Amino acid sequence: MDKKKFAFDKTNFLLLAIGMAVIIIGFLLMSGSGSTETAFNPDIFSARRIKIAPAVCFIGFIFMIYGILRKPSSDENTKSDK
Questions:
Q1: What does the pLDDT read at residue 42?
Q2: How far apart are CA 28 and CA 57, in angstroms?
Q3: Is residue 49 included in any domain, yes or no?
């Protein structure tokens, strides 16, 4: 197969995978028990859930966007073949 037909190269897919893993970690940091009508859980306002986890997710989304927008580098061998 001709490599010119692919929009992404190995680095793009690696950046997408890293971004997805970081986003999943961010959502896991946000998870936890919530408050009910009868009992208030003050842990819903912890710094981990309202500051750290959204920042981690944002970094993951930045990785995903960069992985999509990054232009794959063209090899010098394919340029000389034309």
A1: 87
A2: 10
A3: yes
Interatomic CA distance for residues 59 and 40, integer angstroms: 31
Q: Report if residue 81 sits inside a domain.
A: no
Please check whether residue 67 is in contact with residue 10, taking contact to mean a CB–CB distance below 8 angstroms.
no
Q: Give the three-state DSSP class for 33.
A: coil
Give this prediction's pTM: 0.78
Q: How many structural domains compose the chain? A: 1
Those residues with Cβ within 8 angstroms of residue 60's Cβ, 6 or more apart along the chain or in another chain: 19, 20, 21, 22, 23, 24, 25, 26
Q: In this structure, is residue 25 part of a structural domain?
A: yes
Tens of pLDDT, residue by residue, the chain (82 residues): 555 677 888 999 999 999 999 999 999 999 988 888 888 888 888 999 999 999 999 999 999 999 999 988 776 555 555 5
78 located within any domain: no
For 60, the domain range is 7-32+41-71
